Amino acid sequence: MSYQARKxxxxxxxxxxxxxxxxxxxxxxxxxxxxxHIISEATKSDNKQFFxxxxxxxxxxxxxxxxxxxxxxxxxxxxxxxxxxxxxxxxSFSPLRKLADELNEIAESRREKLDExxxxxxxxxxxxxxxxxxxxxxxTLRYRHAMDDLAHSLxxxxxxxxxxLDDASLSRENMSxxxxxxxxxxxDMVQYQLKRALVGQRGLVRDKSELxxxxxxxxxMFAKIYSDKPVTIxxxxxxxxxxxxxxxxxxxxxxxxxxxxxxxxISEVHITSRNTPDAFVLTVEDDGMGVAEKHRESIFQRGVxxxxxxxxTGIGLAVxxxxxxxxxxxxxxxxxxxxxxxxVMTFPK
Length: 349
Fold this sequence. Notes:
The chain is an alpha+beta fold. The protein has helices spanning 3-7, 57-107, 120-166, 172-199, 211-225, 247-264, 316-326; strands at residues 25-29, 32-38, 51-55, 209-210, 232-236, 242-243, 268-275, 279-286, 330-335, 341-348. Strands 5-7-8-10-9 form a 5-stranded mixed sheet. It has a 3-stranded antiparallel sheet with strand order 1-2-3, covered by helices on one side. Strand 7 (268-275) and strand 8 form a beta hairpin. 23% of the residues are buried.
């Protein structure tokens, strides 16, 4: 035992040191920690072993302090990382929450479409949703317009049916035949408007339709409806006896124009079709009061009527404009040679 060990009163320290000591070890002697180091294997002799001890209280205290700091910073890092992850996830999913809110607003009719200020990753999704919403709105609008147009079209057929029922000059057989014709036309009109609501005006099959049979049928019907007004019908259809329109479209188009002509004329209605190098031209004119210059564009909008004194829905001319536009044509109103209104339509060849 060294002099320093004896001086420190460590006479029994050897009993605390393990007999087989191959590497440094920690022991506790009289309440204090010591590290025991073997000097060298060469110092072993006759069951004797030389070793060095060193008190490590200060080092252990520093180690304990380091552990506490390590645990503290580990916990701090954990909670900070958790907070950052939560914040990042909250921020990352905020566009999805906004998307859900806007879709709910659209479902409740409080919004028309999604905003465009979404992140690039969601841009394609929101664009697709906006396209779907637009298509849905167009479909809904087509259904609404088709139902309005159907009601408007059936009104004339129902009026013609009532006129037939009130016509005492017709035999029962002839009246039944005429009413069946009107019912058949109403059925065709219902099928046409339902198909138009589903596929749109441009989705309907196009065909070449003869003018004379349709003009004769419609003028006969309106003659019954407006039987209290003697109207002379003049048709000049030799130049263009047919037009490149679906029969239902042509019937709807002429039906609306002739109804207005019969309603507003004094005694004359002219129907003319002619050929030009580039187009077919169809004109319906009357000798009524005409259309004021300021109303000549607006009357082709839905719900707009130039004449507020006569009953009407403001749908007929809008339907005419839609039909003509679907065939790439044009429609406008001008002054007639009969001093009334002349509705002119062109259809490209």
